Amino acid sequence: MLDTHAPNLTESIRVLIHNSDERHHRIAAPASSLKRRPKRQSQNRQVHEKRTFQAMFAFGLLLGGLELFIVLHYL
Protein backbone atom coordinates (compact mmCIF):
# COMPACT_ATOMS: atom_id res chain seq x y z
CA MET A 1 0.00 0.00 0.00
CA LEU A 2 2.83 2.41 0.76
CA ASP A 3 4.38 1.66 -2.62
CA THR A 4 1.34 3.09 -4.39
CA HIS A 5 1.51 6.42 -2.51
CA ALA A 6 5.29 6.77 -2.36
CA PRO A 7 7.13 4.38 -4.66
CA ASN A 8 10.59 5.52 -3.50
CA LEU A 9 9.77 5.40 0.22
CA THR A 10 11.62 2.16 0.92
CA GLU A 11 14.71 3.41 -0.90
CA SER A 12 14.53 6.71 1.00
CA ILE A 13 14.35 4.83 4.30
CA ARG A 14 17.39 2.76 3.33
CA VAL A 15 19.37 5.92 2.49
CA LEU A 16 18.39 7.59 5.76
CA ILE A 17 19.40 4.54 7.80
CA HIS A 18 22.69 4.26 5.94
CA ASN A 19 23.49 7.95 6.54
CA SER A 20 22.53 7.64 10.20
CA ASP A 21 24.81 4.62 10.63
CA GLU A 22 27.71 6.49 9.07
CA ARG A 23 27.23 9.44 11.43
CA HIS A 24 27.12 7.19 14.47
CA HIS A 25 30.29 5.40 13.43
CA ARG A 26 32.11 8.71 12.95
CA ILE A 27 31.05 9.96 16.37
CA ALA A 28 31.71 6.67 18.18
CA ALA A 29 35.30 6.29 16.94
CA PRO A 30 36.78 9.44 18.57
CA ALA A 31 34.77 8.88 21.75
CA SER A 32 36.54 5.58 22.39
CA SER A 33 39.95 7.31 22.39
CA LEU A 34 38.90 9.75 25.16
CA LYS A 35 38.84 7.21 27.99
CA ARG A 36 41.74 8.80 29.85
CA ARG A 37 39.80 10.85 32.43
CA PRO A 38 37.29 8.54 34.12
CA LYS A 39 38.33 9.56 37.65
CA ARG A 40 37.78 13.25 37.09
CA GLN A 41 34.41 12.64 35.50
CA SER A 42 33.29 10.29 38.27
CA GLN A 43 34.41 12.77 40.96
CA ASN A 44 32.55 15.60 39.25
CA ARG A 45 29.50 13.38 38.97
CA GLN A 46 29.72 12.41 42.64
CA VAL A 47 29.97 16.08 43.64
CA HIS A 48 27.01 16.90 41.41
CA GLU A 49 24.95 14.04 42.88
CA LYS A 50 25.88 15.09 46.43
CA ARG A 51 24.78 18.67 45.78
CA THR A 52 21.57 17.43 44.18
CA PHE A 53 20.88 15.24 47.21
CA GLN A 54 21.52 18.15 49.57
CA ALA A 55 19.22 20.45 47.61
CA MET A 56 16.45 17.84 47.47
CA PHE A 57 16.84 17.08 51.18
CA ALA A 58 16.63 20.78 52.09
CA PHE A 59 13.57 21.20 49.86
CA GLY A 60 11.95 18.15 51.50
CA LEU A 61 12.59 19.60 54.95
CA LEU A 62 11.09 22.90 53.85
CA LEU A 63 7.98 21.19 52.50
CA GLY A 64 7.71 19.03 55.62
CA GLY A 65 7.95 22.10 57.84
CA LEU A 66 5.32 23.90 55.79
CA GLU A 67 2.99 20.91 55.95
CA LEU A 68 3.49 20.62 59.71
CA PHE A 69 2.79 24.35 60.11
CA ILE A 70 -0.42 24.06 58.09
CA VAL A 71 -1.63 21.00 59.99
CA LEU A 72 -0.87 22.49 63.39
CA HIS A 73 -2.40 25.84 62.40
CA TYR A 74 -5.78 24.21 61.68
CA LEU A 75 -5.92 22.25 64.95
Cα-atom Rg, whole angstroms?
Answer: 27 Å
Q: What percent strand?
A: under 5%
What does the largest sheet look like?
Answer: none
Shape field: elongated
Helix content: over 70%
Please report the distance between the alpha carbons of the first and last residues.
69 Å
Number of helices: 3
| Global structural class | mainly alpha
**Residue-averaged pLDDT, rounded?**
77
* Contiguous runs where pLDDT drops below 50 for at least 5 residues: none
Order of helices and strands: HHH
Number of strands: 0
Give me the secondary-structure topology.
Layout lengths: L1 H4 L3 H24 L5 H36 L2
How would you characterize this protein structure?
There is one protein chain. The protein has 75 residues and is mainly α. Helix content is 85%, strand content 0%. The chain has three helices and no strands. It has helices spanning 2-5, 9-32, 38-73. It is elongated and about 75 Å long. The protein starts with a helix and ends with a helix. The relative contact order is 0.05. The model has no long low-confidence stretch (mean pLDDT 77).
